[in-house]
Structure formats: C-alpha cells, structure tokens
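Run: sequence + cobalt (II) ion -> complex structure.
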Amino acid sequence: MLGPVNHIAIAVPDLNAAIALYEALGAQVSKPQDLPEHGVTVVFIALPNTKIELLYPLGENSPIASFLAKNPSGGIHHICFEVNDIHDTCERMADIGVRILGSGEPKIGAHGLPVLFTHPKDFCGTLVELEEVARP
Ligand code: CO
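>> structure
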C-alpha cells in the first residue's frame, strides 16, 4: 500500500543557487549529502507536510546528467511514496505489471532506509521511488 508522500525530488543544474532560492523563502535546508551509489548529491528542504529533495549530479555516470541535458533549467524528477514493507510492495507491483528498475533489490537511500524505483512507463510517465518506513 502507498503511504504518505515522503518527498518530491527536483533535479537542479546549480545546487547552490537552488539552496539560496529556498533559503530566501525561509525554508529550512539540510547540508548537502553525497550518495555515490545513486550518483547524486542531495539536499532536503523541510516543509510542514513533506520534503523537497534537490538532486545534483555526482560522478561520471550520474542518472541525473541526462535528465538535466534534456531539462537544462532543472525539473521535477521523481515522487517518493512511503511504504510499510518494500518486498511486499515489490510483489504487488509485479502482480500489476509495474517493473522495478535496476536489480530489483532495494538500495539504501538518503534517509538510511531501503528504496526502490519503478519504471516510469509503467507508472503514468512518472518516476516513482518507494521508501520503506517502518510505522507502528
Ligand atoms: Co528521492
């Protein structure tokens, strides 16, 4: 089952300019965090009801580089939904014909929790991240 939106991710061509923009609007912005396994540097902006994740390319084969080549001003890259059980969600996705990207095995994401991405062609043209968040 899909839980709350954990974050909306925006790829940006200039991380410092994007941070300055959100800070100028009074938003609380985290320190940049390098995620070499995902080929990105991320920053989180805390909002009252969700977070914005700013993505900036890291390394040679960053998945964000081609996105920014097509969207030079930046743009919405993915939406992250929280799920209770990522393996259970994977099985459900397979049942309804939604492909999981990569090896199909969860990687550890920016919050130290397991994450997966689904194929945009199978999900309304949207890149969807699933993050396992244990809730009581
Ligand atoms: Co994300």
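>> summary
The domain at 2-132 is CATH 3.10.180.10 (2,3-Dihydroxybiphenyl 1,2-Dioxygenase; domain 1). The mean pLDDT is 94.
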